[in-house]
């Protein structure tokens, strides 16, 4: 093949390449679909996964639905109801990302979307495959949207080969679903994997109830509340007693301004507070929600990234340490030391 000449890629090839940047793996598809459901004001979201999402991803919500006249746009690239201008992108409270998700997902899968708004009497069903809309038909439906993705990456064999085992992809999805459920206790989130219900949160707005449903039920009894505000940073959440520890730090889960993040800095601060009280190589469980002014963090604007950089790392570390020390005292965690004369 000669690579001497410049050719413009045909539309389908270009869209498959672009899709790869938004959806590399099934969990990224699930994230986009659930975030759309959240943006649509849903109070109930049910996610159904089969074979690590390779075979089937279903997301059913009771949100606003999509108006009939917008339906032929949903799978178009850069079609969004959430922003109009570049400035809006920085202002928006919605999770949506430039109207690229559905187009990208549709480019590499078979999609069926059923939707109905409160105003419409009947719903509509759109089917599409490999980026092409096949049919739009009227169907009976409840208000909300239900979207089904089958045979992800059927037309991009290289990407399909790159996927991990069903089990490993399912684990990524399960972690994501747990994080979504914790960061949205106000939404009833139900998660079904390979025909079995994994969890169902009540959607009553209480973090403790969400933790109880998502994780092993014994855990919640071993957590105490942590709440502190200083240096313009707010922290709320739960942390485990000295008696309840894990062999690794995977259950130190942190959200910054509502968004799940990975931060070694935060893990260090947690360990600093706990270290005097734990055995070597034991780790506490923490669920922390940190709120600070958005200018104080650099979050990579790409939605798939979870890395975060704080501008004032020292402040964050200090806040977490102080919050935990305060909670240890409040919940009688620190053993009393008696000195004999
Ligand atoms: P974005 O979320 O960035 O706008 P998407 O490609 O994810 O881009 O979605 C395109 C548009 O389709 C959204 O702006 C929204 O209007 C509509 N949409 C997608 N999913 C849903 C849903 N579950 N409920 C209501 N509207 C939806
Ligand atoms: Mg979106």
Automatic annotation (TrEMBL):
This protein is involved in the repair of mismatches in DNA. It is required for dam-dependent methyl-directed DNA mismatch repair. May act as a 'molecular matchmaker', a protein that promotes the formation of a stable complex between two or more DNA-binding proteins in an ATP-dependent manner without itself being part of a final effector complex. The lineage of its organism: Bacteria, Bacillati, Bacillota, Clostridia, Eubacteriales. GO terms for molecular function: endonuclease activity. Keywords: DNA damage, DNA repair, Endonuclease, Hydrolase, Nuclease. The keyword DNA damage applies. Belongs to the DNA mismatch repair MutL/HexB family. The keyword Nuclease applies. Coiled coil: none annotated. This is DNA mismatch repair protein MutL. Residues 211-329 form the DNA mismatch repair protein S5 domain.
């Amino acid at each position: 093949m000669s690579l001497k000449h410049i050719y413009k890629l045909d539309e389908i090839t270009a869209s498959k390449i672009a899709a790869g940047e938004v959806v590399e793996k099934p969990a990224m598809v699930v994230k986009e679909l659930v975030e759309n459901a959240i943006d649509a004001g849903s109070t109930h979201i049910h996610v159904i996964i089969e074979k690590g999402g390779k075979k089937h991803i279903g997301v059913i919500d009771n949100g606003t639905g999509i108006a009939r006249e917008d339906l032929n746009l949903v799978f178009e690239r850069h079609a969004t109801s959430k922003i109009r201008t570049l400035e809006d992108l920085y202002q928006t409270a919605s999770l949506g990302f430039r109207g690229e998700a559905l187009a990208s997902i549709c480019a590499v899968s078979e999609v069926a979307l059923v939707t109905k708004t409160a105003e419409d009497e009947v719903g509509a069903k759109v089917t599409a495959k490999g980026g092409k809309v096949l049919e739009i038909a009227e169907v009976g439906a409840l208000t909300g949207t239900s979207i089904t993705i089958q045979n992800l990456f059927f037309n991009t064999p290289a990407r399909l080969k790159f996927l991990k085992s069903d089990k490993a992809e399912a684990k990524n999805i399960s972690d994501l679903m747990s994080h979504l459920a914790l960061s949205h206790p106000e939404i009833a989130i139900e998660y079904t994997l390979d025909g079995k219900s994994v969890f169902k949160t009540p959607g009553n707005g209480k973090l403790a109830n969400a933790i109880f449903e998502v994780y092993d039920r014994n855990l919640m009894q071993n957590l105490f509340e942590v709440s502190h505000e200083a240096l313009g940073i707010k922290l709320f959440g739960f942390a485990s007693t000295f008696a309840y520890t894990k062999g690794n730090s995977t259950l130190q889960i942190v959200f910054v301004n509502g968004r799940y993040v990975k931060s070694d800095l935060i893990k260090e601060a947690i360990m600093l507070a706990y270290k005097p009280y734990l055995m070597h190589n034991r780790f506490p469980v923490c669920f922390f929600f940190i709120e600070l002014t958005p200018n104080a963090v650099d979050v990579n604007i790409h939605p798939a990234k979870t890395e975060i950089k704080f501008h004032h790392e020292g402040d964050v570390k200090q806040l977490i340490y102080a919050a935990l020390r305060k909670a240890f005292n409040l919940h009688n965690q620190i053993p009393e030391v008696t000195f004999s004369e």
